[in-house]
HAD family phosphatase
Amino acid sequence: MTSSIPAVETRPAAGSALQAVLLDMDGTLVDTEGFWWDVEVAVFAELGHQLLEEYRAVVVGGPMARSASFLIQATGAKIALAELTALLNSRFSEMIGHGVPLMPGARRLLAELAAHSVPTALVSASHRQIIDRVLHTLGAENFTLTVAGDEMERTKPHPDPYLLAAARLGADPARCAVVEDTMTGVTAAEAAGCRVVAVPSVAPIPPAAGRMVVGSLEEVDLRFLRGLMTGKH
């Protein structure tokens, strides 16, 4: 499936090597990784299976198809992948219907990027129906464009979503800062050639060249992201 996102022409942030900021959604901007796990546990309980806690680190941050496929294989549940995917998305959509909690520092960071007209994209492995519901909380006006997992032939951990977002923003991936909370997302961003700020949510993420690891978005602002481009950290 190819993306239907229209091309967007933007200009680099003035006076900075930073051209764009690309942000993950679940666990990075909104505190929903626990929601996904609760839904998965509940659905599999109805199917007669108990999910082991160790599965959580495997499925976190992954595309729905990969996570659902893993859980079917791990439990031996008698359900088709397409049916399980639709069921999980539907249950999660119901759960977030009344809004979702933002991660500490998320609202401030989005407001600062918007105030300085920094091209910003939301890049998620979640499906479009989920992203559109979460945008009611995050504010669609805070993003130049959004990329959903079901709009890509290959989503995270492949680099495709970040390469698409950078291209649509007219930005060089090497001059894009990515904010992610899982190793799956970090892998995708680094494979695309982006600089990464990792804010681990469920599983730890080690520091590496071109990657900064912080404890919270409260440590991240525009100055920090510009410094990521120049190595001033």
